[in-house]
Each structure stands twice: as C-alpha cells, then as structure tokens.
Amino acid sequence: MTKLAAILDQIDSGSVLLPEFQRGYVWNRDQVRGLMRSLYLGYPVGSLLTWETRADGSLVRGQEATATPALRVLILDGQQRITSLYGITRGRPPAFFQGDERAFAGLRFHVEDETFEFYAPAKMAGDPRWIDVTALYTRGLEPQIGMLNAHPATRPGIVSYVEHLARLRQVLERDFHEEKLTGADKSVDVVVDIFNLVNSGGTKLSKGDLALAKKCAHWPEARAAMRVHLDRWEKEGFSFTLDWLLRVTSAVATGRAGFGSLDAVEVADFKQALDSSARYVSQFLEVAAGHLGLVPGFRRRARPPPICPRPESRHDPGRETLAALPGPARPCCH
C-alpha cells in the first residue's frame, strides 16, 4: 500500500512517470468530480499497476533520456486517476502530461453540503462556502479557516466546516494498493501485452490506442511524431484524430486501413509510411485551402502537386485505399 501523498512526491522527483506507449489524458470533469467525491467519502477507487524498470529514457514520457538508465516506476494502470489528483492538489499538470488540463482546473467544494462542482461564477461568486480545492491543498487549511471565520454568514458553522475541510485534506493520506511488475523477464513487449489486457476495462482504449501502444514498444517516439503532424494541421485549422492518422499510415503501409494490419509492419516501414501519409495529407489540405480559401496562410499554387504517388509508383499499396479512409478531408488518388 502506498499513500497518495507519497505517489505525488515521487512524480515531483521524477521517479514515477509514464511509458511512452501510454495514451494521453482523456478524462472529463464529471469523471474528475466523481473521483474526488469517492475519495472524500472513503469509497474504493481502484488499485494501481506499475512497472519498475531501468528502460532507456526514450521509453519514458516526462523525462529526458540519460546515459545510464535509472530505475523508474512507470504507471501502467491508474494514469487518469493519478494525473487528476496531481493536477488538483498541485495546481498544475505533471511533467508527463498530454491532454487538456481544464478537466481538473477550477474544482470547488461546498463546505456545508459537502459536494464538488467546477467553478460557475453565477452560482458561486460571493458565496464563501464554495472553497477552491486546489488552494486548500497548495496553501493549507489556515487561510480557508480565516476566510470562513471572517464572514458573518459562515462563522456560526465554522466547527463543522473545518471538520469537512480537514477530511478533504486527508485524501492525501489515502492508501492505494499497488501491483508492481518487476524482473528482467518483463520486456517492453510483455508489458505492452499486459497493459492492453488490463486496459480492456475502465476508460475504454480505442483499437487505435492499442495498436499504437504496440508500435511504441519498438519506436517509443511514434506517438510524439504523429502529434507533431496533428498539431501542425490543428494550427492551420484542420482537426484530425490520432486514430485517423494511424489509419492513413496503415493504408499507405499495407494497403488496408485496419489497425490489425500494422502488426506485421516493421518500424522502418512504419516511419516511412507515416512520413508519406503526412506529406499526402498536407498536400491535399494545401490544395483544398488554396482553392476554397479556407486558411489565409495557405498560398494557392498554379499547378498543385498530386496528393498520391505518381503513376510510376505502381507498387505503393496506399494508392487505392487512401481515398476510402473515414474522416474529414479525405485525400484522393489517381
């Protein structure tokens, strides 16, 4: 059993991190609020599964690679819960964070009703009973007591309010059962298989998440490389999902858009297919934007380049399938 406070301190020290094959943070505010309510009431919130390893730093998210691999504990199951709790109690996301931090920002606790809600000015402004949960953890109990005691409306109930706040702070002392994978036999491939099995429940992973986890086992930077393209397109006004880009890459690499086809694709071929896919999509978006005036930053070319490989590239399996992919802004082929 490990106390929550100890886990958060280990994240601060860099000894608890995430493996690169993990997806990013995907929880919403309802899930965050439900987690805090369960912890406050003493309900079960699940155990943690971790992997103790000296894996190279390239396999670890949130820390630079080191010449001598250090012993680290990587969270396999429990990332969403621990990330939420870190964000609420520290007031910032952890170093390994990838996602939308607004999901855990602005949580309030009603000291009388003992309920959790996210900040709503129309409802909470001017009401001292709504306590900033993050401020309670980062600044301590004393400032909150002083504020409640200074207000005529909350002074009569100060004793029970302080009890509620103290109970909320005690969440940091909550024990989490931790199952730890150790040993030289726990290779990245073995751990990815365990990760995929464990994550068949909870917040459901998509088939793309699982396929990419396998690929990251052999190319840890795969997710980050894909995010570079997605972020660039997002800045240009086009929003695509990671699953969609993975399907495009699968189509270019194998001729089929299904995720299962990626199992047999070697890392070098996957890298080449990703580069080609990104080039095809960017060319298509540039042509579409130039003709339709979608993005001011794009310049229309007199003779736009083809989206798919030229006819002499007869053996590119992505030619016939790229146009049939699901999702917005589908490239077309010759």
Number of helical regions: 13
How many distinct folded domains?
Answer: 2
Largest sheet: 5 strands, mixed
Q: Specify the structural class.
A: alpha+beta
Based on Cα principal axes, name the global outline: globular
> Per DSSP, what share of the residues sits in E-state strands of 2 or more residues?
5-15%
- The spatial strand order of the largest sheet comes to 4-2-5-3-10
Q: Indicate the percent of residues in helices.
A: 40-55%
Mean pLDDT: 81
What can you tell me about this protein's structure?
Strand 6 and strand 7 form a beta hairpin. The longest helix is centred in the last third of the chain and has 26 residues. This protein has a five-stranded mixed β-sheet with strand order 4-2-5-3-10. The protein has 334 residues and is of the alpha+beta class. It has two domains: 202 residues, no CATH class; 116 residues, no CATH class. The C terminus is likely disordered. It is globular and about 70 Å long. The protein is built from 13 helices and ten strands.
